Amino acid sequence: MNGSNSNQPNIESLQIQLKIEWDDHVQTREQSWKTFQYEILLIAGLVGADLKINDIRMTLVMGIFMILFAIFGYRINKRHKDVQNRIFDNIYKFSAVQNNIKFL
Question: Which positions ≥6 away from 97 have C-beta within 8 Å?
């Protein structure tokens, strides 16, 4: 043995894990923005179609679709926010270990 504590991760593995977490953060953020963009496009398309068709039953159906799109968009973005919280918690912990900072 080289005298190092086998329970402590080495600096290289911490740096690799930090890079993975940051890459995951960037990907999650991009997915959130894409979800938001698609949501806006779908709602704009439904509103445009409603203005062109001008039928009360179609307006009701399109309104239901807009509500469903909003619910799905909210749930996807909430899930991404939960993932972001986990990622930043991991980044904080890995950074603290890398810098030998004690935390609760």
Answer: 8, 9, 14
- Cα 68 to Cα 19: distance, rounded to the nearest angstrom: 36
- String of b and e for 10-31 (b: at least 16 CB within 10 Å)? eeeebeebeeebeebbeebeee
Nearest 5 degrees, angle CA 22-CA 28-CA 33? 130
- What is the rounded CA–CA span in Å between residue 39 and residue 69? 7
- State the Cα–Cα distance between residues 73 and 67, nearest whole angstrom: 10
What are 55-72's pLDDT values in tens digits? 888 888 888 988 898 898
**pLDDT tens-place string over residues 25-36:** 888 889 888 888
So where are the chain's domains? 16-98
Q: Give the ranges where the chain is alpha helix by DSSP (H).
A: 11-53, 56-98
